Amino acid sequence: MRIEDLKLFTIVVKLGSFTAAATALDLPRANVSRRIGELEKALNAQLFFRTTRQLRLTQHGEAYYHELLAVLDGFEQAKNKLLDVDEKPVGKVKLGFLPESDEALQPALAKFQQLYPDIELDLRLTNNYVNDIYSLGLDFVLHAGKIKDSGFIARKILSLGRGMYASPDYVAQYGAPTSLDELAQHQTVCYRWPDGTLDDNWDFISDSIKVNCRVSCNHMGFVRRAIVGGQGIGFMPPLFALATIESHQLVRILPEYESKKEDVWLIYPDRKGISLPTRLLIDFLLQEIPERASLS
């Protein structure tokens, strides 16, 4: 009886099917079914009622599951103690993040792996943390905006503002607006939110304006490249464009207008059973991302 199979059993219970567990763990479904069958044989007890439409715990499975959670949590803590003594963390962290945050996140993760070269990072794009944490088997996710009351632990990383940017070529050709009213006469590049809403109403603390959108995309990386390419003025967090700002490929437009801010969160299921590599990465990002944001 292997620890990995016991952990697999708890994941099947949480996700409700062999197929969902296989997807989350990047395993063949047949592998999951076989290993659960072998576990039942080793325990001499049926853990699940299986039908074509539903998978549910038996009475034995229910009792075993709740006891096993405490055992596995203790096992994880004991393993972390050993790693703390060795001072050489080893393991894998599965992290979910929004597509538009790659510019800010990648340098931070590279720095983390320089500190901990034996920790493997498995990154997944996600737009719905409530579903994706379990369906993709994520250890934690980074999320911007409002959070749903879903029973997860949510730790605020920072509040993120946005600025208006254009390329030097665009400014040379069309000039820079000197007021928000003039901005309405310019071409803009707009972000499209995951729900399909076009971000063409730019909100500031003291005012707001509807812009003339020439190009839109639901990926912030494309929006950033379009702005750098001179296709229009864009409205985005400077944290997502640090490299292009520092290299003067983008210039700030109307810097006196301060945008409303949006909270960025680090979200994970619970405090129990967190591996040492996961805990180290969480603590690292809670410090590193605000520091990078301050550079912007």
Structural class: alpha/beta
| Strand/helix succession | HHHEEHEHEHEEEHHEEEEHEHEEH
Helical content (DSSP H or I, runs of 4+): 40-55%
The residue ranges in which pLDDT falls below 50 over 5 or more consecutive positions are none
**Total beta-strand segments:** 14
- Kindly report the average pLDDT value: 85
| Spatial ordering of strands, largest sheet | 4-3-5-14-6
Q: Which word captures the global form?
A: elongated
Q: How many helix segments? A: 11
Classify the beta-strand content into a percent band.
Answer: 15-25%
- CA-based gyration radius: 24 Å
N- to C-terminal distance: 52 Å
Largest β sheet strand count, sense and barrel closure: 5 strands, mixed
How would you sum up this structure in a few lines?
The protein has about 300 residues and is of the alpha/beta class. It is built from 11 helices and 14 strands. The chain has a 5-stranded mixed sheet, with helices on both faces. Strands 11-8-12-7-13 form a 5-stranded mixed sheet.
